[in-house]
C-alpha cells in the first residue's frame, strides 16, 4: 500500500508531456510555483493569462502552466517557468461539499483543539489533555443537540402535535428522521483520504520527516499530525451511539403509550452517561498521545492494544444504543392514535440535560485552557489571541452557532406547521434560544453602529496624512485608501470581539439553564432586575415587559432569517461552483486541521495539499536539475507552503533541497493570525528556524489595504522601538518609491503611483487589497532579490517603469539584476541557536510605517491611536527622519 501510494503520487506530480525538458532545457532556468489562498482562485487568474494547461496532478490537486491557443506550454520570455498548484477542489470541488456549511459548528469546535498553546512539562500536558477531553465532550453534546433538534421537529412538532391522528406510522417515521441525520453527518463529512491514512498506518506517517519530538519548534512536522485523532473510528461510533440514545429518550413516551414498561428513558440516560464517560476519559488527546503506528516508539504496541480495547467498548455501546433506538421505533408503530394537545412529555427535561452536559464541558474546557495558558507571554507580535484563551472562545463560538442553527430551523418549521385550528407549542428551550439571539443580534447592531461612527471620524483624521504622504492620491482617492486601511485594521480587534461574544454566550447559556429549572421540577430562581434582563421566563401572573417581548421577537426574526439564508446559500452552492467557493471559505481555513475532537467534520485537505507540495518541490529539485525553485504562497497558501517547507527542513534526506529554494509569501497571515491563533504550529521560533534553513531566502509582501494579511518577518521590540527580523537584530527602514523594506518584509503601496504624473493627475490603478500581488512591480523585484535572475526585464521596458515611476526618476534601483545575486546573510548567532534558544529570545511586537510619509503604523492602521483593544503597535514617525535609529522608536 505504501509503495502504491508513493508511486501514485509520483505519477501525479510528474510533468508528463509538459515536463521541464523543452527547448529551454531544465538545468539553467528557475521555476516559479504559485499556491493560491481561500476561495480557490482560478488558475487563469493565478497565472494572469487566458489559457492554461494542466501539467501534473489529478482532478483534485492540479498543477497548471500558461498555454497558447493550441494548448502548448508557454514560458516567460527569459525562459523561466511559471506554474500554479490549485488545491481548491479539495474543499469546493463537488456539489456535496456545499452541504459542509451545515457542519460549520462542528468544524469550529474541532479547530479549537489546535489553538491550545503548546504544553511544555508534565503538568501542562495534563492540563492540555483535560482541555482536549472537554472539547470531545462538548463535541458529543453538540451532536446530541443537533439530533435532539431534528427529533423535536419531526417527533414533537409534526408527529405528536400535528399528525398523531394518523397512528403509529407517523411516530415511527418521525423517529427515523434523526437517525437519518446521523447518517447524513457521516456521509457529508466523507472518509479520510485512502492513500494517506493507510500509508500512514503502515509507515508511521505521511512523508514523516521526524518522530514526534519537543525539540521541533512546530508541531506540523510530527508524523501523526495529518492523521488526526488516533481513536477516530471509536470517536465516530461513540457519537453515533450518543445520537441514538437521544432518539430513544425522545421516543420513550411513545413506548410507554404503547404499553411497554417505562424504563426506556432511564436506559437511554444510562447509555448516554456511559458514552460521555468513554468520550471524555477513554480517548486520548491528539497532541500528547502516543502514535499507535509509530515504529520508533516502544510504547506504540501498548497504544495499539489500548486503541483496540477502546474500539471494542465503542462498538458495544453503539450496538446497545442502536438496539434501544430500534425498540423505540418498533414500539412507536404500536402507539395509539391521537397524539397530544401540548408538547411531547419529557422533551424539556432532555433539553435541560443536554444543556447541562454542554455547560459542564465548557467549564472543564475553561479550566484546562486557563491552566495550560498560564505561561503565555503578552505583548509579542506572535502572542496567542486573548492570552492563550482562543480555544475556549472558538469553542464557545461553535457552540453558540450550533444552538443558533438548531433554534433557526426549529423556529421556521414551527412557523410552517402552526395554524389557527391547531397551534404548535414549541419547547421552552426554543424561547430561550430566540431570546438569547435577540440579545446577541442587538449587541451586533450596537457594535456595527459604533464602528460606523468611529469609521467616519477615523477616516477624516487620517485622510490628510495619506494625501501628504502620497501626492498622487487626490481627495477621493485619499479617502478611499484611508477607508481601506481602516477596514484592514479591524482584524486587530478580532480577539476582543470573540471575547465579548464568548462571555456573552456563556452568560446567556447559564441564564437559559436557570430559566429551565422549573420545567424539570427545580425551584425557580429570583434574579435582580439588572440580571433578569438576560433571562426570559413568561410569568403566569404578569405579562412580560415590552422590551423582553421585543427582544424575543427580534431573536425569532433573526433565527428565521438565519435558517432562510442557510437554505438559500445551500441551494445556490449546490448548482454554482463560484458560490460554493465563496461559501466554503470557512472550510478553507478550518479544514486545514485534521479531525481531532469531532468525527463529523471533513477530512483535512492539508494532508493531500502539503504532500503534493512536498512532492512537487522534490520533483523540481531532483538530481540532475540544477535550477532554483521559487515557492510563492498567498494567504492560506502561505500556510500550506510553510508546512511543506518546515517538514522538508526537518527531514535529513530533504533538508539540502532548501538551499535551492526561494520562498515568497504575499498577503500572508502567518504572523497576524495563524501564529496568534495556532501557536503550537506557527510561532516565532518556527518562523526564525525556517528563515535560517532557507539561508535568509524568504521575502514577504503585504499592503496597508490588505484586510487579512500583514507583516511576517519583522516585528517591534517594545522597550526600544527597534524593528527586528530573523537574523537581523535591528533593521533600518529602506524607503523606495512604491514600497518600503524592513529587511525581508516588503510593504508595498496600494494603489501604485502613476507612471507619468504629467499625463495622469491621479491614480488610475484600482485598490488591490488582498489580491493580485503578482501584478505589482515589487513581485519580480522580490524574486530577483531572492536569487532568481532576469525576472524584471521581461515585465517592463525600463527599470523606472518597473518601480511605477516616470522615466528618468528611478535612479539605479532595479536597473541591474545580478545573474546570480548572493542571498541575504543570516546572523550566525541565530543559526547556531537551537529552537529552545530562539523561543527564549525576547519577544517583540510589530512596527511598520505608512505609505511614503503617512505617520501611522501598518498594524494599527489609521486614526489617532490604537483601538479595539490593540495596544501592541504604537504609531510611527513619518519617513525622512534624520536619525536612522530613531525612526523605529515610538512617538
UniProtKB/TrEMBL annotation:
Coiled coil: none
UniProtKB keywords: Membrane, Transmembrane, Transmembrane helix
Stretches the record annotates as Disordered: 1-25, 797-827, 857-891
UniProt organism field: Pseudonocardia hydrocarbonoxydans
Chain intervals with Basic residues compositional bias: 1-10
Name the UniProt record assigns to this protein: Integral membrane protein
Positions of transmembrane segments: 137-158, 170-189, 237-257, 263-283, 312-335, 347-372, 393-414, 434-453, 494-514, 546-570
Superkingdom: Bacteria
